Amino acid sequence: MFDVQKVRAQFPILSQTVNGKPLVYFDNGATTQKPEVVIDAIAQYYTEFNANIHRGVHTLSQLATDAYEQARNTIQNHLNAKYNHEIIFTSGTTAGINLVANGFAKFVKEGDEVMVSALEHHSNIVPWQFLCEKTGAKLVVIPMNEQGELRMDKFEKLLSSKTKIVAVNHISNALGTINPIKQIIDKAHKVGAAVLIDGAQATPHLRPDVQELDCDFYVFSGHKVCGPTGVGILYGKENWLNALPPYQGGGEMIKEVTFEKTTYAELPHKFEAGTPNIEAGIVLGTAIDYLNGIGFDNIAKYEQELLDYATRKLLEIDGLKIYGTSENKASVISFNIEGIHPYDIGTIIDKLGVAVRTGHHCAQPIMQYFDIPGTIRASFAFYNTREEIDIFVEAVKKAQMMLT
Ligand code: PMP
User: Fold this and answer.
1) Ligand 1: which residue has its CA nearest to atom 12?
2) What is the SS3 assignment for 376?
3) How far apart are CA 312 and CA 85, in angstroms?
């Protein structure tokens, strides 16, 4: 049995009041809150074994290195990657995508195509535009339909031997759509294209199996999975990571440096130049262990109940329109109320203690598709409750009354 009150008690921030009201935190798509085990692990690192890693012969450095490498193993197991050197620590999803898009210039020439989807976050668009500017390749976009689903028929027609890489998100941050990535990966591989999956919004809700998916790259951020900011993961297949050039040069990533020539370290160090965010890397392992302790099956089932309940309650409000109505959806609801700017609703419900995101959610092409300035986005985590949804819906109704 999933006991949400027991879970909530593990998140100190959830018991506070905001603007004199109990906090209702529905901005989990932007970042998740942290359980006590994660907060304690941060303090423990600095209290007991803070040291630089992979360098010192001294005991503290060994302890820190072991903990960091143990976190890498935890993430390898979590993603079911074949080797632990296929797990690269980055500073987040954005950094992981930039690393791949930068190095991928080696495999792309003028006239080739790089494919993204209409549902992408800016961080899975702009780095590919850089790549196209640098190489003369063309950016091709998989279109979407009114429900906020990718047009798979169009996708198949757009694929060709010119397609070198397809970069799509697993779950859309702006609409919550769960994309058919297995199908995308298989079809892209048939034309010889590599596939990068942006898992920033998927990893809080499900456990990806990178070998079963057969994706070439999978990226995500620590702060969206109850871990710290400033850390993320790039999974890459060994052969791709060996073929890609290093991204940043510096300490840690070299085998030998002379002024004539430098040779690079083996994976994963080739992509980990400089002192990383050691604490965050270690604690990301703690966060992943915590989530697995709760169980992703429990998380998905409970969040689906929250999503269904909130959708039903919100649709009772006159003039409310939900964007993203696919049947395959994560616990994200993007909506607007006729005649009211999303920002005004967000500001009023904040006064009532409810935290949501308003705006374009770093996905301006989606807003252009619907011809709207933005939406109000409520994104639920496993520590949210039906009672909070009731408070949120009442707050939205109150805002609507005040604004019309
Ligand atoms: N992709 C998606 C789908 C996201 O939701 C986000 C974060 N909003 C990112 C990429 C970027 O993640 P970060 O800012 O942690 O690098």
Assistant:
1) 93
2) strand
3) 45
- Per-residue pLDDT for 49 more than 90? yes
Give the number of other CB atoms < 10 A from CB of residue 373. Answer: 14
Residue that finishes a domain, picked among 293, 315, 350: 293
Domain around 356: 4-30+295-403
Cis ω on the peptide bond leading into residue 268 (within 30° of 0)? yes
Residue 173 alpha carbon, nearest atom of ligand 1: 5
- Ligand 1 pocket residue status of 200, Cβ below 6 Å: yes
Model pLDDT, residue 381: 98
Per the annotation, the verdict on 362 as an active-site residue is yes
- Mean pLDDT in residue range 244-255: 94
Note the pLDDT tens digit of each residue in 172-226: 999 999 999 999 999 999 999 999 999 999 999 999 999 999 999 999 999 999 9
| Residue 169 in contact with ligand 1 by CB distance below 6 A | yes
Which of ligand 1's atoms lies nearest the C-alpha of 92?
16
For position 121, which CATH number holds?
A: 3.40.640.10
Considering the domain architecture, whether residues 168 and 195 belong to the same structural domain is answered as: yes
For the record, the structure tokens of 4 come out as 């949400």
Do 146 and 282 fall within a single domain?
yes
Q: Does ipTM exceed 0.95?
A: yes
Report how far apart the first and last C-alpha atoms of the chain are (Å, whole number): 43
Q: Which atom of ligand 1 is nearest to the CA of 172?
A: 3
Model confidence, pTM: 0.98
Q: Is the CB of 173 under 6 A from ligand 1?
A: yes
